[in-house]
Amino acid sequence: QVQLVESGGGLVQAGNSLRLSCAASGRAYSRYAMAWFRQAPGKEREFVAGISWTGGSTYYADSVKGRFTVSRDNAKNTVYLQMNSLKPEDTAVYYCAARQWVVTRFHDEYGYWGQGTQVTVSS
What we know:
With 123 residues, this protein is mainly beta. The chain contains no helices and 11 strands. The chain has strands spanning 3-7, 10-13, 18-25, 32-39, 46-51, 58-60, 68-73, 78-83, 92-100, 112-113, 117-122. The termini are far apart. The mean pLDDT is 94.
């Protein structure tokens, strides 16, 4: 129903910022809740941030709250993750995910995924 492509990852020094983008296509995209997950080697995929289909509600993992901001521009079919004050612990592959209507924090409840984009934060 929806296809997702992440971009914007890269290598940055701790304390710097990065913005990830998730370009979406497919029917009824604007009615999908969107989320960002991340996965580091040897760790389970974890919830980072989510945003309701209207953009009116956002959700963050405690580890990123105050540093990361999720937003969406439905006219552009794009979701963003602004990451500030990056830490080495933020290093992971970041994935964009979609599900209908309601944001949840569990990766197995999302049916659509992007290919992932690598974020590496050096100390």
